[in-house]
Design goal:
The protein is an alpha/beta fold. The chain has one domain: SGNH hydrolase (Rossmann fold). Helices cover 42% and strands 10% of the residues. The protein contains 9 helices and 5 strands; from the N terminus they run ααβααβαβααβαβα. It has a 5-stranded parallel beta sheet, sandwiched between helices. Helix 4 packs across helix 9. The longest helix has 18 residues. The relative contact order is 0.18.
Length: 240
């Protein structure tokens, strides 16, 4: 497989993530956020209502909680990584329901504002994926770290199991900032003793056919790989 020049791709990554806040082709099923974020025009993003087909589904929940990388921005409704994670679990005989709670453009602060809604769902496991939009906007590492800390702490206090998924930044953000940014995930994983996937797009980013034209979001094929990246961290937390 052909890899493109990393610096050029990462530069486009920065511009694209910042621009994806207000448009998204993939809908998020069963969003229960009581206070959805506003769009650039000030109009709130209305949370979709639960499907009648899943309202009576009593399987324990795995919630994928994050931004556009979780939401499956730019792919069809059933082509996000949580969709493929569901298929992988079904194929292995695990009786859990995966719920996509990704919203494009979300920062760690948005995650804090939504975390009580996630707790109210009483999930067995939550895969937490935030931080990329914080870093690309150059927000203070201390603030992003504190927000992620609160998210993980709140989820753990509720009794749910947590998996933490990280991301990284383009090289032009500077080695010091990037180092501190990357360390956020490892420090929190160690503090709370949670499984860590350091780079959600492992074996996807920069790989031909795995990324959309924006070089930011995975294609459907890329999301299949993302699901396989997440799967080994989730499996030990489940009961068969």
């Amino acid at each position: 497989m052909r890899r493109t020049a990393s610096t050029a791709i990462l530069a486009v990554l920065a511009l694209s993530l910042l621009g994806c806040r207000t448009s998204q082709t993939n809908k998020q099923p069963e969003t229960q956020d009581p206070s959805p974020p506003a769009t650039a025009t000030g109009a709130p993003i209305a949370p979709p209502q639960p499907s009648p087909l899943t309202a009576n589904d009593k399987r324990p929940l795995i919630v994928c909680f994050g931004d556009s990388l979780t939401a499956g921005y730019g792919t069809d409704l059933d082509k996000s990584y949580p969709d493929y994670l569901q298929a992988d679990l079904d194929a292995r005989g695990y009786h859990y329901r995966v719920v996509n709670q990704g919203i494009s453009g979300n920062t760690t602060k948005d995650g804090v504002e939504r975390v009580d809604g996630i707790v109210a769902m009483k999930p067995a496991v939550v895969v937490v994926e935030f931080g990329g939009n914080d870093g690309l906007r150059g927000l203070r590492i201390e603030d992003s770290r504190a927000n992620l800390d609160k998210i993980v702490a709140t989820l753990q206090a509720s009794g749910t199991r947590v998996v933490l998924a990280g991301i990284t930044l383009p090289p032009d953000y500077g080695p010091d900032y990037i180092k501190q940014f990357n360390e956020t995930y490892s420090l929190l994983a160690k503090k709370y003793n949670v499984p860590l996937l350091p780079f959600l797009l492992k074996n996807v980013f920069g790989v031909e056919g795995m990324m959309q034209r924006d070089n930011t979001h995975a294609t459907a094929e890329g999301n299949k790989v993302v699901a396989k990246n997440v799967l080994p961290l989730v499996l030990p937390l489940l009961k068969k």
